[in-house]
Request: fold
Amino acid sequence: MKKYIDFLIKGIYAGILISMGGIAYLAIPDKIVGSFIFSFGLLTVCIYSFNLYTGKVGYLLFNKFNYVLELLISLIGNFLGTFIVGNLIRLTRFKDYITVAKNIVNTKLNDNLLSIFILAIFCGMIMYIAVNNYKKCQDVIGKYIGIFMGIMAFILCGFEHCVANMFYFSIAGVFSFKVFYYLLIMILGNTLGSIIIAFYDKKYNLKPIGESKK
Reply:
């Protein structure tokens, strides 16, 4: 039981840190700078080994079936972390952030499900590559380049990250059956995208940035 509580706590912390990156993104008008600072979220998740669903789901191929439970508990923790931060920010003076978040949320909810699913797949691919590079790369600079480039890429491209979107929905105060349905599609897309790259990694052993295959 203790290990499952640990999974949940690490998932909550991951959700909180991704939310911190999201707050920075909402606060900075320049998208390039905002996406760069957003990287703080994933960077700290990796440094402290917190449980971020999108950073862990690809490793389903490398683990036993009970790993699924760890993923589900981590995902619940991620939601709780983003929900807590989003609603706490709603109680502060940062009202402008709520307006920006609502615009982001409206764009997502006005999109069709196939589009959301495809964009989530691409995000899942990037997330696995970024996290896996951090785990494998022996070069310190290469580790961090992978994180920053990965986060900036998915944000600037407009790809769908389920946990980041949990935060946007929370701070916008928008929750409905449609929201949870869209989140489910994002989760499935992120999962598939991550597994697609993980499958290649399992078969051919992806090499980190700056390291050639022997």
